[in-house]
Design brief:
Blueprint: E1 5-6, E2 9-10, H1 19-29, H2 41-56, H3 63-73, H4 77-86, E3 98-103, H5 106-110, H6 113-124, E4 131-132, E5 138-143, E6 155-157, E7 160-163, H7 167-178, E8 186-187
Parallel strand pairs: 3-5, 7-8
Antiparallel strand pairs: 1-2, 3-6, 4-5, 6-7
Helix pairs in contact: 1-2, 2-3, 3-4, 6-7
The chain binds FE2/S2 (inorganic) cluster.
C-alpha cells in the first residue's frame, strides 16, 4: 500500500504485526509485570525490523510500525520514536538485502579492517557509509567494536559475524551472498571458535579427579 514519502523513500501507509511477530511480541510482553509492558519496547522494535526483512527484504523500522507498537505497549508514539532513533541497530530507512556492518575500531583496524572496507566497496560499488548499492543488495555501515576482537577483523552481515576476514574472504563472501548462498558464520580461517590458529595449545588433556 502506498504511503507517505519523505527523505527520498516511501513510508508504508500501514503496519500490521504478522503471526510470527504477534507471537514474539506477546512473549516479550509476558516477561514484565502488568503495567510495565513498555519495558518490551527495544526487543519489540527488533521484531518489527525482522518482519520488514521477511516481507520486503529490507530490515528497517517504519513509522507505522512504531505507531502499532506504541499502541500495543500503551506508550505515546513519541516515546517509541525516541528509543528507536537512539539505538544504532534500528534502521530508520530502508536498507539493502544484506547489511554489511564493518567494525573499524582499533583491534579490527590493526588486523586489517581497511582491507575489508576496500574489498566491500570494490565488490558492491558503494562509496560512502550508510549507502546502498545500486542493485539494492547491500548497505555498508561502519560500526564500533562488536565485541569479537579476539577474531578480528569482523564483518557482520545482518545478525551474523564473519570473523578472521581478509580481502579475498570478503570478496568471496559478497559473491556468495549475491548468489543467495549464505556461508556458515564464524571464523573464516577455519579455526575452532577463537582457539589459536593450528588448534588448541592448552587443556589438551582433561584430568578429572574421580568422584568419591
Ligand atoms: S574492535 Fe572489532 S570486534 Fe572489537
Amino acid at each position: 500500500m502506498a504511503g507517505s514519502s519523505s527523505a527520498g523513500f516511501e513510508q508504508p501507509a500501514s503496519f500490521t504485526f504478522d503471526a510470527e511477530s504477534e507471537a514474539e511480541v506477546a512473549k516479550l510482553i509476558a516477561r514484565y509485570p502488568a503495567g510495565k509492558q513498555a519495558s518490551a519496547v527495544i526487543p519489540s522494535l527488533y521484531v518489527i525490523q525482522k518482519q520488514m526483512k521477511r516481507q520486503t527484504d529490507s530490515a528497517w523500522v517504519p513509522v507505522k510500525g512504531m505507531d502499532a507498537l506504541a499502541e500495543r505497549l500503551g506508550m505515546a508514539p513519541i516515546r517509541v520514536y525516541e528509543v528507536a532513533t537512539f539505538y544504532f541497530m534500528f534502521n530508520m530507512a530502508p536498507i539493502g538485502k544484506y547489511h554489511l556492518q564493518l567494525c573499524t575500531t582499533t583491534p579490527c583496524w590493526l588486523r586489517g579492517s581497511d582491507d575489508i572496507v576496500a574489498a566491500c566497496r570494490e565488490a558492491t560499488g558503494i562509496k560512502g557509509w550508510k549507502e546502498t548499492s545500486a542493485d539494492g543488495m547491500f548497505t555498508m555501515t561502519e560500526v564500533e567494536c562488536v565485541g569479537a576482537c579476539v577474531n578480528a577483523p569482523i564483518l557482520q552481515v545482518d545478525d551474523d559475524f564473519y570473523e578472521d576476514m581478509d580481502r579475498e574472504k570478503t570478496l568471496a563472501l559478497i559473491a556468495a551472498l549475491r548468489e543467495g548462498n549464505i556461508p556458515p558464520k564464524g571464523s573464516m580461517s577455519g579455526r575452532q571458535n577463537s582457539a589459536p590458529e593450528g588448534g588448541p595449545t592448552t587443556m589438551l588433556t582433561l584430568h578429572f579427579a574421580p568422584e568419591a
